[in-house]
Amino acid sequence: MPLKVGITGGIGSGKTTVINIFKTLGIPVFDADAAAKKAMHENIDVKKKIIELFGESAYINNELDRKYIAGIVFNDALKLEQLNAIVHPVTIAMAEEWMQQQTSHYVLKEAAILFESGAAAGLDYVIGVFAPQHIRIQRTMNRDKVSREEVLKRMAKQIDEHMKMKLCDFVITNDEQQLVIPQVLKVHEKLLSIKNERDAKG
């Protein structure tokens, strides 16, 4: 059984860049956000509960109307909490099943809200990807073509970045100053070493 390692970081932290380096090293990655979308599109029980929560308008031609849902949950904390309560347990179960099928030394479970969703439970280690707020804001504005105010509103939905990093076992800084690849390699070697030590102990 591989080590179960979470990887998280706030919006605009450059998490995808870091994940792609791990993928190049041959490490399998579970994308929790993609799994959540899959569950909302394909899981009959999840779809039924979403329709009960948001009404028939939640789906158009059997496709989730993400814009409609986002318009509600970004302005209604209770509805967001209720949506997460529907989707997150299913996503966590999907991740667990996927992890058990992997044969590498360790696997990565990627989620922007790893701690907020309870998805960090059961993991051996967590890697945090950190970038200063001004860089995160600019990256997100450029990537998503949204205003600074919109980015700040999204950030407010996530726990404080410094607090999040304190909860992580490893932190990779992606601030356009420090080289990222050597940091990833250092974490990679450490995780391989931990796994080998565990295997040696039986």
SSE map:
Layout (H helix, E strand, L loop, with lengths): L2 E6 L6 H10 L4 E3 H11 L1 H11 L4 E2 L2 E2 L1 H8 L3 H24 L5 E5 L14 E6 L2 H12 L3 H8 L5 H6 L3 E4 L6 H22 L1
Parallel strand pairs: 1-5, 1-6, 2-5, 6-7
Antiparallel strand pairs: 3-4
Helix pairs in contact: 2-3, 2-5, 3-5
Function: Catalyzes the phosphorylation of the 3'-hydroxyl group of dephosphocoenzyme A to form coenzyme A.
Family: Belongs to the CoaE family.
GO molecular function, one term: dephospho-CoA kinase activity
Protein model, in words:
Helix 2 packs across helix 5 and helix 3 packs antiparallel against helix 5. The chain folds into two domains: about 130 residues, 3-Layer(aba) Sandwich (Rossmann fold); about 70 residues, P-loop containing nucleotide triphosphate hydrolases (Rossmann fold), CATH 3.40.50.300. By secondary structure, the chain is of the alpha/beta class. Strand 3 and strand 4 form a beta hairpin. The strands form two sheets. The protein has a five-stranded parallel β-sheet with strand order 2-5-1-6-7, sandwiched between helices. Helices cover about 55% and strands about 15% of the residues.
